[in-house]
Give the backbone structure.
Amino acid sequence: MKKVIYVIGSMRNPMVVDTAAQLRALGYDVFDDWFAPGPEADDFWQSYARNRGQSYKEALGDYHARHVFEFDKFHLDRADAAVLVMPAGRSAHIELGYMAGKGKPVYVLFDNEPERYDIMYNFATDVFFDTGELCAALKEELAYVN
């Protein structure tokens, strides 16, 4: 059975799609469908909620937010591993932490050397600065995932 990799990132980062394509080419079942709504999806949701007079807390509890959350969580739970494609924001980092907390291997693909170092990336199984190195490591490491 194919290993499932959830690609985490920002809807504004086109490297998500490129990274997912490279992982698919290696034969993985890759989930990146969350990217489909486009780079302004969260902005539209926020505007829509505000136009309805909702606070952020209220908007988080509406049908749309709960549906999207459950959709993403379902695919996080079925994944064998996750790859965070940088740059990415808070939501992506929460997803990475969720996966790490579930004991699943998590990897970070940086777009370049960070200006400011952060030790908490030690929660990741590994970090990479090159997609080729990431792919080579996944081929070796995911062979042992149940």
About this structure: The mean pLDDT is 95. Residues 117 and 145 are 29 Å apart (CA to CA).
